[in-house]
Amino acid sequence: MAMRKGSNVPVPASAVRVELGWRTGPGVPDVDASALLLASGKVRSDADFVFYNQPAHSSGAVRHEGKRTAGDTVTDTLAVDLARVEPAIETVVLAASADGGGFGRVPGLCIRVLDASGGAEIARFDSEDATVETAFVLGELYRRQGAWKFRAVGQGYSSGLEGLATDFGISVDEPQHTSAAPAAPVPHSVPLPPPPPAGAAAPLPPPPATAPPAPAHTPPGAAPAPVSLSKVTLTKEAPSVSLAKQGGTSGAMRVNLNWQVRKQFKGWGHKLGKAIAMHGDLDLDLGALFELADGSKGVVQALGNTFGSLHQPPFIHLDADDRTGARASGENLTINLDHISAFRRILVFVTIYEGARSFANLNATVTLQPQHGAPIDFSLDECTVPSPVCALALITNTGGDLVVQREARYLVPERGVSPQRTLDHAYGWGMNWTPGRK
Q1: What count of other Cβ atoms lies within 10 Å of the Cβ of residue 200?
Q2: What is the predicted pLDDT for the residue at 357?
Q3: Pick from 292, 384, 303: nearest CA to 339
Q4: For the chain, what is the total number of helices (H) and then of strands (E)?
Q5: Phi and psi for 423 in degrees, rounded to 5?
Q6: pLDDT confidence of residue 229
Q7: Closest by alpha carbon to 74, among 329, 350, 363?
Q8: Torsion angle (degrees, nearest 10) of CA 312, 313, 317, 321
Q9: Measured distance between the N- and C-terminal CA atoms of the chain, rounded to whole angstroms
Q10: Which family does the entry's similarity section mention (predicted)?
């Protein structure tokens, strides 16, 4: 349902997905969705601000689920469980901020409210009058006589996310800085001597899945730290970042993989003497090679059902195997930063399980999100070699601090060599590999 500014509609669903959408292209600023939970027009504390650096509200009612790309269209999604919104909260403000320019340079900006259970569109508001604004309140969910409604707002701010946040009572520790666009990853072709053919890592007995640790609470009497709006972009010129310097010294660090849901060309077949194209669902797998301080090594991945564990070695856990990319949250690998001393190094990687023969022309993104630090983003759409495996980031324990090194390295296996064994050879892990399946 298309709406005009200032109009409102009932929201009959108990849970909704709020999609902020726009068209990307050269010179178009990056855009981020955020939400503020208000009581009497203000947040109760900085914890009522949900955005890329604070992706989940403590009540579980609002979550920032991240970005997805389909062609030239990008969506950034918020999940709102209206049934879990605390009684004191009257309004959930739905906002957007632009990084790298004003919203006048962002084509096709819109907000959609969808029924979370079936995906039916409840409301849509297209913003068409933006100029120099760098933050926008596009809409709000609000209570009226025990029921929820959505209002199209369209209020702009020239002071960016910092100005918007402080206007609603958020304390910000630093001004928002515009970050440069990430440099295109440099593809690498790595020829390797062909070892004996192998498939996947030898499976380890998967321990029970465990949930990420609860967010740390501020000690009684201590002033809460102001919210940081910083974002980290690793480039060829600045390829590494210290998690300690970004505040990522404890809690859970989520590594998220999301990709475009589409049919991918698989190859050629023949029917009645004619060549035909064959396509299949794209299935990418997120994983990690690990080496612990005690010398033990292994892999966390869906292949072989080696999902790891968060609260016992290796303190790394893969939440599930997303076979199609259809889940809004994609695939998530969680690293327990409360056990930094246990890690020696971690190599985060992505492989193509089926649906494509290379990362070329695939729209996939990876975000490293520390629970108490700035997000680190990678894009996987610049591969120019026939590579089915990409080393994303190497995380190394350096003097008790985890340092994230940008890799963005596309590897080309020799014939008969698995992607995992190719990674092992390239980074000197020295593991034994046996065939596996999922």
Answers
A1: 24
A2: 83
A3: 292
A4: 2, 28
A5: -60, -45
A6: 78
A7: 363
A8: -120
A9: 42
A10: Belongs to the CAPAB/TerDEXZ family.
Backbone dihedral angles phi then psi of residue 212, each to the nearest 5 degrees: -60, 150
Residue 108 has which token pair?
């096709």
Instruction: Tell me the CATH number for domain 200-210+232-434.
Output: 2.60.60.30
User: So what's the pLDDT on residue 137?
Assistant: 96
How far is 294 from 73, CA to CA, in rounded Å?
46
**Partners of 99 in the beta sheet?**
30
What digits encode the pLDDT tens for the residues 118-160? 899 999 999 988 999 999 999 999 999 999 999 999 999 998 9
Q: How far apart are CA 9 and CA 189, in angstroms?
A: 54
Q: What is the DSSP string of 201-269?
A: EPPPPPPPP-PPPPPP-PPTTPPPPPBP---B---SSS-EEETTTTT-SSSEEEEEEEE---EEEEEEE
pLDDT along the chain (438 residues), means of 10: 91 96 90 96 94 88 85 90 97 94 94 94 94 95 96 93 93 54 34 39 39 40 64 74 81 81 43 37 87 96 91 92 50 92 96 84 77 75 84 92 89 93 95 80
pLDDT computed for residue 324 by the predictor: 46
For residue range 153-191, what is the model confidence (pLDDT) as tens digits? 999 999 899 999 999 999 886 544 433 333 333 333 333
Query: What's the token pair of residue 79?
Result: 């999940």
Q: Do domains 2-167 and 200-210+232-434 have the same CATH topology?
A: yes
User: Which residue in 200, 238, 143, 98 sits closest to 435, CA to CA?
Assistant: 200
Tokens of 65: 């689920």
Is residue 192 a contact partner of residue 422, using CB atoms and an 8 Å limit?
yes
- Write phi, then psi, for 408 (nearest 5 degrees): 45, 50
Q: Does domain 2-167 have CATH number 1.10.760.10?
A: no
* DSSP states along 284-337: EEEEEEEEETTS-EEEEBTGGGB-EESSSTT-EEE----SSS-STT-EEEEEEG
The C-alpha angle 428, 283, 287, rounded to 5 degrees, equals: 30
What is the largest distance, in Å, between two alpha-carbon atoms of the chain?
78
User: How far is Cα 352 from Cα 342, in angstroms, rounded to an integer?
Assistant: 29
pTM for this predicted structure: 0.58
Dist CA 206 CA 208 (whole Å): 7
Domain ranges for the chain: 2-167, 200-210+232-434
Q: What is the pLDDT of residue 65?
A: 84
